[in-house]
Amino acid sequence: MVKLRATEPTPRLPLEIGAARLAAVDAGQVTSVAPYPGCDVTPVLASAGLAFPAPNSMAASGALRIVWAGREMAFLLGGPAPEGLEDLAALSDQSDGWVFVQLTGAAARDVLARVTPLDLRDAAMPVASAARTLINHMPALILHNAPQAYEIAVFRSMAATLVEELEAAMTAVAARAELTA
Amino acid sequence: MSTRPRSQSHRIPGRGLIDRTKPLRFQFDGRSYEGFAGDTLASALLANGVRLMGRSFKYHRPRGVLTAGSEEPNALVTVLEDGQHTPNIRATMQELYAGLNARSQNRWPSLGFDAMAVNDYASPFLSAGFYYKTFMWPRAFWERLYEPVIRRAAGLGALSGVADTAVYEKAFAHCDLLVIGAGPSGLIAALSAGRAGADVILVEEDRRLGGRLLADQPLIDGKSGVAWAEGIAEELASLPNVRVMTRTTVTGAYDGGTYGALERVGLHLAPRAELPRECFWRITARRTVLSAGALERPIAHPDNDRPGVMLASGLRAYVARWGVNPGPVVVFSTNDSGLEAARALTRMGVEVAAYVDPRAVPVVEEFPVYAKAQVVGTQGRLGLKTAAIQHAGGISQVDARVLALAGGWNPSVHLACHMNGRPAWSEKIAGFVPVADMVPGMAAAGAASGVFSTAGCLADGLKAARAALDDLGIAAPDVPLPLAEDAPYAIAPLWAVDAGGRAWLDFANDVTTKDVALAAQEGFASVEHMKRYTTQGMAPDQGKSSNVGALAVLAEASGQSIPATGTTTFRPPFVPVSIAALGAGGRGEGFAPRRLLTSDAQSRAMGAPMIEAGLWYRPSYYPREGEADWRAACDREVQMVRKYVGITEVGTLGKIDVQGTDTARFLDFVYSNMMSTLKVGRARYGLMLREDGFVMDDGTCARMSDTHYVVTTTTAAAGLVMRHMEFAHQAFCANLNVRFTSVTETWAQFAIAGPRAAEVLATVCEAPELPFMGCAELEIGGIAGRIFRISFSGEMGYEVAVPTRYGADLFAHLVRAAEALGGGAYGMEALNVLRIEKGFLTHAELDGRVTAEDIGLGRMVSAKKDCIGKGASQRPELVAAGRAQLVGLLPVDPAHEISAGAHLYASDAKPLRENGQGYVTSVGPSPTLGQWIGLGFVVNGRKRHGEVLRLYDGLRGRDVPVQLVDPVFYDPEGGRMRG
User: Fold this and answer.
1) Based on the number of CB atoms within 10 Å of its own CB, is B307 exposed (0-12), middle (13-18) or buried (19 or more)?
2) Which of A74, A85, B928, B969 is the most buried (most CB within 10 A)?
3) What's a GO biological-process term for it (chain B) (predicted)?
4) Residue B745: which of A3, A34, A155 has the nearest Cβ?
5) Statement: B1-163 belongs to CATH 3.10.20.440
6) Cβ of A95 and B810 within 8 Å?
7) For residues B150-169, average pLDDT
């Protein structure tokens, strides 16, 4: 009997261009959590040190992260869902459905400004906030992990396009920087 | 012909904001010249004594540069770079770089001798609207001769015909305060808001900040305005909350405080591989200050368009900012700004041969003053030689190289009018000014609002910033008002000199005062009609220097006041924007995201041509050695599946996890047939109707547990079905305990189809005994996966699913196993033939216009329950007799090919719309039946099996008889797949 091997979704990473770096992220187990109408998931999540995130927020507890991912939807990253959650919320394994990358460096925000219409200023998108938005024409989830670090997730089938378009933005930003250098 | 000018023969030593330590060689019309860093192409040409820069649009009259800015109507050139060329570049906006190669336009064979200038002699026949009155006869000549000739003669520059493969960018920015224009008003507004801590974006079209300060160089706080601007620029650059964007033009004002802006990123340099040429910005601002300044007007007088005639403000800029020595100048002015220009030129060492003003100005100046006078003509076809001045004593001819026109100033109200507002006429400045709140959140300041003195602009800028900061709830800092000149602006407008000869209004489209008067005479008295009749204001400059003048001439011709005559509106873009910038990143495959299957790399490596459907790239067929074309491969693949086994990736189909205690009930509501009765471990084919009763999609529904179903959808309908279910839940039954999650991407899924499918399956898992339409979870290749016993090919078949990361490896194993048994991978062409042979439907048939009954699945709308669309599907017209019904189509002659999209008629009927009996939706060459087959819809089709109709495809010239048959061509009992 064969034993199946996994394939890397973004073999071209990491890429370093100018003051920006793009690297692959292993987000671990990813589970979508959609609480059923009228169900309160707070106690079960609390047992894992987490709470259901308000829109645009995210939190971490140990290896687990929970991120707001849309209307009445959160993504749990980094580990299995706490026991009992499946009775209160629809859980669906999304580990293979999304590809995660991290964009870092002094130019990260400038690069991101080429591909998303979001207001990226600190007041609008502080560290530890998340947003469902677009990266060009791709539906995406953006997590602002640190001042110069943005984690970006899009559908796994669009991984090649994501890398290409971020690479193009990084290249353009670096080319400008060279002018003023 | 004049001799070649000496290099930079027309420079004033020691003057100008150019860097004389950095000479730059450039070419214009094949001749080499030299300029300096800081020059534009226009200033460098003038410095080299070149005044002739172009030929006018209609009459091919020799023209020179009129302005020093982005409103330039005459000096449009083509810039050659890198095997590419860009037409219609304003020479005033093209910054000089080493090796710049530019060429004049709209002339043949040369700028100095243009054969098309014959148009100028035919001008009495070519006045406004001439093409409405001529070229009518003979009728046939219009398409054959007149139109092609007119098309060839029209236009200015020409495209290269070579695709533009350069890099362009798009980007987004957000701020509290957007300041448009960095003249005195804008600079002080940005400074004020910047010091207050607001997020400011200051946008300036020029390469450096300062606006008119760079040309007029007034004193501010006792020091040069240029130095003052530099000081502000330095402070702004040091503030982290201020972004200064030079070389950027705001092109449009849109809803919600959004502005479009075009940044020239690399156009001032020789092309560099990775540097974007331009960037199109979308800027969102909570408040905006429009400090865009004002544009000077020329004066319409006979022959006011010779090379050497320019705006006084432009001339001042060329002298003060670019150190150009123009030679003797005549200034023709109607206002104090023009008088001040003459004085400033004299101070800078320029010879002002005459100052001409229709007003009774005092004659005590350092130059000859002709009061109560006007210019009535000029001489010098290829370059101004003399100006004719009419005054009390008669007409004097004065020698001059430049005639500087100062007809007054138009505040730049354009952006403020982009949301359909109309500006107000100000008698005081004889110009239009913005009205408050035409664009919500935007306020004009400085010259853009009709304030023209330096002190006035500074005060206005501070005031606007204060008001904006107030609105934003940010405390305004104390910024002291600098001291500057506050001279009044007196003007007695002279719109047109009537002295015989043609007086030019719109230089870019060659429109004269006579044309405008003609429009009024012919009854086109509204400004909207005059504009279209004469084409005034419709050139690339959009009438920036002619709108008001033309309006004034029209007002006089129709006996109305200017405000009563009105103004046409302004729409984005304010300046020409290249399509490449608007569409940055969208060329070729960049147009849309590519969705790739897990088997993508392997399919391409196997030589499969890929086709795009719904953003997914799927293999068309897998060519093997000796196969000449797609048909050979397709035939082989179909037979391979029917005889042995085939593998294809079907992961593109939408998959939705539907979970919750009310799932079954909900699915009964959205599906037309019963899903609640489905047993765990079974799948069922279902139809979903739209609310209007037509079929929306079909798919399979698999029950994994009591409260968990997996719904599949057609590839392109995945999002549609998801939205439909979300809407139904939220709008109709929000209390139902059910949730939907897309899992299309989460699973890689493969069809294993054919009599030997089970053998292939055995190589990757220990498959349980599954009944037809059964499903189960099981380990595949050591990974938790799923198996479904379903078939789209009509053969014994399974679909196996594993988490996407294992898809590529699973595909490799399955194909290897299949090939060992005489089978292999198959693509979309074969998939399509296989399913047509079985009468299985896709969205080619379910195109949104058919009901369940039309496709012969009326019994799938359950009588036992309600569902979305059921009521509407029973409307009289949807159940009436005479509807088109699904049929199979078989060419009577097996050698005939048929086409999808063809229509069907009675054998003896003409192929006209009124005789239509039906249409063809899908076709394919069937090796199983040995001929082409198809599916389609025919009126009362189910009762007409055996009848022969005429299939007609006018596009491809097909006209063949086809027989109507049952849509299931092969194995109608389904024994092969149910086996």
Assistant:
1) buried
2) A74
3) tetrahydrofolate metabolic process
4) A155
5) yes
6) no
7) 87
